[in-house]
């Protein structure tokens, strides 16, 4: 007879991703379904990464979570959604029955997660964080399937951190979100000359979080509606082609335009949201002057929901 497993532990790391065609706005806030598809570049884990350990034990009396060494609310709806979905998939895989040789799904779990960079400063910490949480839980329960749909339940952009290289998050059409998934467009080896620099303008927590900000934008910005319906579908096709052809001129120009349009939708939101600072704007101006000096696009910038330049 197989011995009962009373303790198990799994550790994973996950990368940050930076969107070059931005996600901003949900059509379903509970399932985290976006109003438009998006496309990102996954960064190397050498400098920026989340590390998460998940442990399950017969001796744990409650689920617990620590973020950067401090206990956090494990009851957060998004953490709970990820936990529930991973356990549901594990149950499905086991065909409903309990096997003493595998880890019991009734055991409570402890999760400890750490970022080696500023959290919630617009550096995609939630993306790496939830991608890592889902990967660690999946490893703990021995799941091998593609889990971007589960990571999406933690944070929309997290689904893209489940892959390396160039990644598209497909908007999907179905109301249940089963087709709102991430997929790799090209591996990182496709374009090894591409370099990503992060200029940390501020490590402070952003004044308006993405989740709340994008919802106000959906409710009040006519520009965002036009962007999602008309602009993004065209840009997505163009961006895929620039990546395929390793055309930095096209890639860089479009990334800058898309970042600028995202921040324009923030300004079009009412009341307006400001993520860029004077320093951010100086960086934008510098990039354009640098490119003008060289006569072509040598550098490009993109800014998420914060002042830091990528
Ligand atoms: C500006 O994924 O953080 O970085 O789904 O509500 O968790 P939630 O939002 P989040 O939004 C990211 C917005 C963005 C653009 C992007 O990454 O595509």
TrEMBL record:
Residues 196-310 form the Mvd1 C-terminal domain. One of its GO terms (molecular function) is diphosphomevalonate decarboxylase activity. The keyword Lipid metabolism applies. GO terms for biological process: cholesterol biosynthetic process; isopentenyl diphosphate biosynthetic process, mevalonate pathway. Keywords: ATP-binding, Lipid biosynthesis, Lipid metabolism, Lyase, Nucleotide-binding, Steroid biosynthesis, Steroid metabolism, Sterol biosynthesis, Sterol metabolism. Residues 14-182 form the Diphosphomevalonate decarboxylase-like N-terminal domain. GO terms for cellular component: cytosol. It catalyses: (R)-5-diphosphomevalonate + ATP = isopentenyl diphosphate + ADP + phosphate + CO2. Pathway: Steroid biosynthesis; cholesterol biosynthesis. Its EC number is 4.1.1.33. PANTHER family: DIPHOSPHOMEVALONATE DECARBOXYLASE (PTHR10977:SF3). NCBIfam families: mevDPdecarb. Catalyzes the ATP dependent decarboxylation of (R)-5-diphosphomevalonate to form isopentenyl diphosphate (IPP). Functions in the mevalonate (MVA) pathway leading to isopentenyl diphosphate (IPP), a key precursor for the biosynthesis of isoprenoids and sterol synthesis. Belongs to the diphosphomevalonate decarboxylase family. This is Diphosphomevalonate decarboxylase.
């Amino acid at each position: 007879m197989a011995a009962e497993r009373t303790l198990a532990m799994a550790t994973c790391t996950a990368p940050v991703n930076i969107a070059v065609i931005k996600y901003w706005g949900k059509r379903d806030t509970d399932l985290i379904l976006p109003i438009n598809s998006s496309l990102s570049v996954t960064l190397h884990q050498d400098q920026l990464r989340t590390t998460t350990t998940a442990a399950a034990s017969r001796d744990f009396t409650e689920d617990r979570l620590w973020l950067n060494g401090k206990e956090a609310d494990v009851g957060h709806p998004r953490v709970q959604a990820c936990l529930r979905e991973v356990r549901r998939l594990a149950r499905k895989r086991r065909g409903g029955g309990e096997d003493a040789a595998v880890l019991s799904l009734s055991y409570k779990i402890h999760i400890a997660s750490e970022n080696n960079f500023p959290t919630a400063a617009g550096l995609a910490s939630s993306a790496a964080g939830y991608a890592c949480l889902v990967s660690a839980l999946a490893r703990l329960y021995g799941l091998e399937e593609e889990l971007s749909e589960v990571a999406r339940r933690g944070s929309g952009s997290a689904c893209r951190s489940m892959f390396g290289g160039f990644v598209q998050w497909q908007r999907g059409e179905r109301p249940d979100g089963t087709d709102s998934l991430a997929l790799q467009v090209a591996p990182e080896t496709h374009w090894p000359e591409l370099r990503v620099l992060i200029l940390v303008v501020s490590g402070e927590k952003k004044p308006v979080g993405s989740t709340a900000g994008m919802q106000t934008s959906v409710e009040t910005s006519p520009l965002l509606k036009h962007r999602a319906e008309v602009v993004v579908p065209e840009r997505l096709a163009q961006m895929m082609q620039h990546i395929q052809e390793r055309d930095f001129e096209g890639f860089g120009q479009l990334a800058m335009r898309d970042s600028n349009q995202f921040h324009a939708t923030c300004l079009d939101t009412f009341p307006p949201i400001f993520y860029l600072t004077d320093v951010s704007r100086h960086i934008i101006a510098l990039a354009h002057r640098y490119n003008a000096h060289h006569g072509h696009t040598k550098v490009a910038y993109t800014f998420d929901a914060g002042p830091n330049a990528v």
